[in-house]
């Protein structure tokens, strides 16, 4: 896993999560800017996943490739799913959906890093 790219993804996701959760607490529906920032976060997560998939072909594979692949699929699909659900819910709950989606992404990235680190030790 790419350290700086993973760190950037985590930091951006946590900042956006704080923003979305604050807007939800203030009873604000998702704005166009909120939806666009989630789309940008989705693109950042997609770049991270592509880099991780390319890394699978360099010869070092995780001990549990199926679990790693499952986390890759979940990581790339989670933000677009949250974005789609937020578009369906044009109330404060849509903003909460974006916040929850953004706060779960760092957990997925950290888990991918944990699985990848086990590979380098073994």
Automatic annotation (TrEMBL):
Species this protein is from: Actinoplanes palleronii
Sequence intervals crossing the membrane: 6-23, 35-56, 68-86, 93-112
Transmembrane among keywords: yes
Protein name per its UniProtKB record: Integral membrane protein
Keywords noted in UniProt: Membrane, Transmembrane, Transmembrane helix
């Amino acid at each position: 896993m790419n350290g700086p790219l993973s760190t950037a993804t985590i930091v951006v996701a946590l900042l956006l999560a704080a923003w979305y959760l604050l807007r939800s607490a203030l009873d604000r529906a998702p704005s166009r800017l909120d939806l666009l920032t989630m789309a940008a976060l989705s693109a950042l997560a997609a770049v991270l996943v592509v880099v991780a998939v390319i890394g699978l072909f360099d010869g070092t594979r995780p001990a549990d490739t199926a679990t790693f692949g499952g986390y890759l699929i979940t990581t790339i699909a989670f933000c677009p799913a949250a974005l789609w659900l937020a578009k369906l819910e044009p109330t404060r709950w849509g903003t909460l959906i974006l916040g929850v989606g953004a706060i779960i992404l760092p957990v997925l990235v950290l888990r991918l890093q944990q699985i990848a680190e086990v590979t380098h030790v073994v």
